[in-house]
């Protein structure tokens, strides 16, 4: 397999996804084959990611006064790119907030009474186009980077769980079913890709509300407090609904984990029974049943 071009790509190539151009051109000319697929970058390999996280986890265990927390070890490993992509995401969302005001001023420029707005209409239209372009250029790398970061965290935790299971004694492994591990890896850790892309909205949303209130205050002044009150009521209602739904989400997660655990154990036992049956001299009968 070929080396991934993303490893040798510069910052601009990664930001604008230029490193994907050779693969896209090849896919446009012919059908892609397995030999056209690149190797995984060294930064995405499970060995490298697990070593980074394991090193930080050992530091956390050694320095923690109380119970060590995995979140602190993850923060020391991935806080840099997480903060950078969050800043890009905020800039992209901030441009979305300003767009309606510019659009309103462009519409007002068609009024024959307002000559000043009419003279600025072209500049306002140019500014609106630039905002759309900036939003597109900022959001795509930010969203892609956050999902890619979530994938890296998931791979690192997968590797740590796998290494931990290899170090456990047989007495401890007897208390842990394979279904529990499958449920942990498939049902819970797979949510990292989705949750990491939405985590920044915890602080972006209040800042957006403040920015919106400032823009509304400029238009209608004191009457904007009515909009703020309506927004506060909606937030309270949504918080109450979320609190009511929390027990249902927990119950659904437990049932889903139990379902995955039972399914995995059933499949594992079916394979065991199949192996015992074939090893007991009934392999010929099994092949006859398959042929039939």
TrEMBL record:
Domain of life per record: Eukaryota
Question: In what residue span(s) does the ABC transmembrane type-1 domain sit?
Answer: 83-274
The molecular function GO annotations come to:
ABC-type transporter activity; ATP binding; chloride channel activity
Q: Which GO terms describe its biological process?
A: bicarbonate transport
Cellular component (GO) terms are: apical plasma membrane; cytosol
Q: Name one Pfam family in it.
A: ABC_membrane
Listed SUPFAM superfamilies: ABC transporter transmembrane region
Q: Could you tell me the keywords of this UniProt record? A: ATP-binding, Membrane, Nucleotide-binding, Transmembrane, Transmembrane helix, Transport
- Record field: transmembrane: 73-92, 122-144, 195-216, 222-241
Q: Which PANTHER family match?
A: ATP-BINDING CASSETTE SUB-FAMILY C, CYSTIC FIBROSIS TRANSMEMBRANE CONDUCTANCE REGULATOR
What is the protein name stated in its UniProt record? ABC transmembrane type-1 domain-containing protein
């Amino acid at each position: 397999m070929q080396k991934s071009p993303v490893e040798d790509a510069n910052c601009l190539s990664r930001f604008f996804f230029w490193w994907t151009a050779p693969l896209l051109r090849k896919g446009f000319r012919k059908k892609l084959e397995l030999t056209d697929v690149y190797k995984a970058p060294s930064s995405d390999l499970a060995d490298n990611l697990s070593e980074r996280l394991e090193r930080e986890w050992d530091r956390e265990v050694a320095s923690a006064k109380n119970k060590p927390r995995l979140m602190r070890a993850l923060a020391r490993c991935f806080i840099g790119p997480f903060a950078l992509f969050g800043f890009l995401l905020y800039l992209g969302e901030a441009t979305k907030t300003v767009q309606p005001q510019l659009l309103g001023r462009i519409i007002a420029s068609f009024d024959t009474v307002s000559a000043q707005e009419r003279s600025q209409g072209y500049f306002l239209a140019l500014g609106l186009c630039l905002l759309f372009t900036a939003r597109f250029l900022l959001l795509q790398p930010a969203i892609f980077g956050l999902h890619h970061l979530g994938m890296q965290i998931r791979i690192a935790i997968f590797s740590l769980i796998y290494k931990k299971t290899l170090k456990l004694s047989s007495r401890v492994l007897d208390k842990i079913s394979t279904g529990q591990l499958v449920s942990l890896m498939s049902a819970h850790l797979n949510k990292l890709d989705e949750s990491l892309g939405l985590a920044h909205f915890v602080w972006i949303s209040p800042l957006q509300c403040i920015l919106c209130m400032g823009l509304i205050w400029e238009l209608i002044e004191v009457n904007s407090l009515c909009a703020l009150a309506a927004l506060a009521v909606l937030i309270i209602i949504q918080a109450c609904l979320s609190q009511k739904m929390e027990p249902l989400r927990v119950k659904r997660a437990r049932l889903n984990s139990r379902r995955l655990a039972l399914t995995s154990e059933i499949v594992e036992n079916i394979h065991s029974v199949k192996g015992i049956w074939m090893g007991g001299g009934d392999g010929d009968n099994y092949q006859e049943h398959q042929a039939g």
